[in-house]
Design a protein that fits this description.
By secondary structure, the protein is of the alpha+beta class. About 30% of the residues lie in helices and about 25% in strands.
Length: about 120
């Protein structure tokens, strides 16, 4: 089965305009084939407020650098970061220490506990 991650990515409208047609096609294909568990856009009336772009949530992805799709997303993130174009990415691995939050624009990682 392998090691799985859960997370989300936010592409600002500026980011969506800046990525290549091929990169945009990858996002659209992943939306259409159900790879994302939730897709939020500015048209949504949810608790996210003004999204300014799109938020894509995922579950059970194998986030391995050797995977072609992951390489494509990582290339998008690098290009956007280098160009100082707003985006964000958060990922939670199966191990509690395997967490990352890239830009802290739309996402933060919180930890808490519950008494049972």
């Amino acid at each position: 089965m392998g090691y799985r991650s859960t997370g989300a990515m936010w592409f600002s409208q500026q980011a969506l305009d800046a990525i290549s047609d091929e990169q945009n096609k990858l996002i659209q294909q992943d939306i259409e084939n159900g790879s994302f568990t939730h897709v939020h856009s500015d048209a949504d009336t949810d608790n996210f407020g003004i999204i300014d772009g799109i938020i894509l949530e995922f579950e059970s992805w194998k986030w391995y650098d050797s995977y072609k799709d992951i390489q494509a997303y990582e290339a998008m993130f690098k290009m956007l970061k280098d160009a100082k174009i707003p985006y964000d990415f958060v990922r939670l691995g199966e191990d509690p220490s395997d967490v990352e939050c890239r830009e802290h624009v739309k996402f933060v990682i919180n930890t808490d506990y519950e008494v049972v």
